Amino acid sequence: MEKPKRYHPLLIALHWLLALLIIFMLLMGLLSLKWMPNNPAKLLPLGFHMATGILILILMLVRIVVRIVKPKPEPATAGNRFLDFIGKLTHYALYLFAILMAISGIGISVQAGLGPIVFGASGAPLPEDFFVYPARYGHGYIAIILIALILLHFGAAMYHQFFRKDRLLSRMGIGKG
Ligand code: HEM
């Protein structure tokens, strides 16, 4: 069967939705949540962060299933076997670390008992400092790795689009193939 020229529309929609959500969550965590004192005013933004993180995890899993079952275009090539290998590795790593980001967030929530405080309005105070929980360190380090992978991924897309001029982005719904 002939391979399609672009990814399945559902996969394209999930790609851009997840890109927006993940970048938004990284900025929210790094620029805002991390610096807020753990007082009652933090419950709303934290609840939003936690709920969006769980949504990201669900959408990532849906994305993996759609990617497996729907036909895909030919693997892209950068014209160099080593770069192609790095490209493939980066894609798997992006899936893995986006999922680990959400799992480590859930880890903080479990270790700190955040469910009833944030979503159950138990009235109990937030723990004074999340860094007493090992998962909080994981969440911070995984964020750095995820940002590095996103930059690598973005750089590779730009390399294809503007140096190789192979219109790779059209496979993800941007421009004509
Ligand atoms: C892919 C999804 C997620 C992303 C991209 C994300 C991103 C971030 C980032 C960048 C930080 C700051 C890390 C640092 O600089 O050390 C953070 C903090 C945090 N995140 Fe997430 N997160 C995600 C999912 C979750 C989930 C699912 C939960 C809980 C259910 C969660 C709970 C928290 C908590 C409790 C903090 C600590 C805030 C603080 O230090 O006051 N996150 N997140």
Question: Hey, roughly how much beta strand do the residues contain?
Answer: under 5%
Mean pLDDT: 96
Residue windows where pLDDT falls under 50 for at least 5 positions: none
Are any ligands bound, and if so which?
protoporphyrin IX containing FE
Structural class computed from helices and strand pairing? mainly alpha
Order of helices and strands: HHHHH
Shape: elongated
Give the structure's gist in a few sentences:
With 177 residues, the chain is an all-alpha fold. Helices cover 68% and strands 0% of the residues.
Topology:
Elements: H1 9-32, H2 43-69, H3 81-112, H4 114-119, H5 134-164
Helix pairs in contact: 1-2, 2-3, 3-5
Bound molecules: protoporphyrin IX containing FE.
3D structure, described in words:
There is one protein chain. The chain is 68% helix and 0% strand. The chain contains five helices and no strands. α1 packs antiparallel against α2 (43-69) and α3 (81-112) packs antiparallel against α5. It has 177 residues and is mainly alpha-helical. Protoporphyrin IX containing FE binds at residues 22, 25-26, 29-30, 33-34, 49-50, 53-54, 56, 98, 101-102, 105-106, 108-109, 130, 139-140, 143.
Q: What labels would you give this structure?
A:
177 residues, mainly alpha, binds protoporphyrin IX containing FE
